[in-house]
Amino acid sequence: MTPELFLKELCETKPSGVMATVLSVNGHGPANPGDKLFWTAGKLAAGTVGGGSNEQQVLEACAKLTAGQQILTIGSSRSATFPPCGGALQILLEAIDFSDPAGESFWKTVQQLIPGPAPHIFLTLIAGSEIHPCHVLADETGMVANFGKGCREMKIPPALLQQFMENEQSGLQEIDCHSSQHSFFIQPLNRRGRLFLIGAGHVAREVAWLADRTGFQVTLIDPRRELMGEERFPAGCNLYLNDAAQFFADKTIGPRDYLVIAGPDHAADLMALGQAGKTSARYIGVMGSGKKIGSFEKALRKKDLWQALEGRLHAPIGIPIPSKSPAEVAVSIVAELIQVRNKPVIKQ
User: Would you tell me which of 26, 34, 64, 123 could form a disulfide with 170, CB atoms 3.0–4.6 Å apart?
Assistant: First the structure.
């Protein structure tokens, strides 16, 4: 689990405990570099590093850590009876007190900036048990916030910072700090994607809940006030009570954004699709039958708008699941969104 998904609770409850971060994965398994959990008061409080015996070993190690850091290497199986199915994990354990005044403002800054539209990077110094935790939050302009002795003196060359901002993957990197090279774990933030749902009907509502659960930052766009009640959607969703034309006039859609068009009628969806093609959205999906999409293609080709959609358009939307229930259609759509999100971004 990334910091976006559990820092809010930790900043509110201010526990003292151990944060575990997956640094690397050698082999197959459910964990990814950057996944985190937080252990406090003898139990798991938030997050996951993949579950199973791996996670149990991490929790046992958390219980033994009292200060500083520890690098832990574990496998998926405790005995030789079965081969490990999740590979070997390298885990960073850090003792962290969220009630510490010195770090409280830093963690609040991180929590407030993520999730959000602007990409950031989160850096953690790998230095062993003799130091206090050292973390840095940076954006494309440089350091935004820091916590820990010596972090203020860290220098990130502009070219290296740009490389970090463009990278989608977490990993270790040597950086100049205190006039010497130190190893940092670099984790991209705000790369989970913004999802804009044009239309707030039954399927869109189910998509909103699933997408929110899987890390997308969700916005609903619909002029129908009766469908836009806050109680229908997850608390983190943004509601834009207006039509699609005004939405495209007001918003800048970028290459990390996802659009799902599921409006009230064909005319509104056709207009939205034409506008979507003018953006640099990574994903554009349209609800409807093959016949509907065929008519859209014919209309947009006449206006020379269809070519801009090629390579990004998913229509009919979703992975093939022969079902018409809103919840199951939503599963097919969000599965496709995740599939696209997890593919490397190809730069033009």
Answer: 34
pLDDT at 1: 40
Q: Residue 347 falls within a domain, yes or no?
A: no
**For residue range 276-323, what is the model confidence (pLDDT) as tens digits?**
999 999 999 999 888 999 999 999 999 999 999 988 999 989 999 888
List per-block mean pLDDT (blocks of 10 residues) for the chain, which spans 348 residues. 62 89 81 89 89 90 90 68 63 90 84 75 76 79 81 74 79 74 83 90 96 90 95 90 94 91 92 94 93 93 91 92 91 96 67
Question: Could you give phi then psi for residue 53, rounded to 5 degrees?
Answer: -65, -30
The two counts, helices (H) then strands (E), for the chain are: 9, 16
How many Å apart are CA 63 and CA 45, to the nearest integer? 13
Bridge partners of residue 284, in order along the sequence: 259, 313
- Six token digits for residue 146: 């820091």
For residue 103, the enclosing domain spans 3-189
Q: For residue 121, what are the CA distances in angstroms to 35, 161, 191, 250?
A: 14, 9, 10, 27
Question: Among 196, 173, 192, which residue's Cα sits nearest to residue 119?
Answer: 192
CA distance 200 to 232: 10
Burial class (CB in 10 A: 0-12, 13-18, 19+), 322: exposed
Nearest to 58 by CA among 38, 41, 80: 38
Residue 346, domain member (yes or no): no
Tokens of 98: 């969220």
- pTM confidence score: 0.68
Sheet of 238-240, strand order: 238-240, 217-221, 194-198, 257-261, 283-286, 313-314
What count of Cα atoms within 13 Å lies in the side-chain half-sphere of residue 208? 27
Q: How many residues does the chain have?
A: 348
* pLDDT at residue 2 in the model: 45
Are 217 and 165 in a shared domain? no
Task: Look at residue 348 and tell me if it is in a domain.
Answer: no
**Where does a domain end: 189, 222, 241?**
189
Percent with pLDDT over 70 in the chain = 87
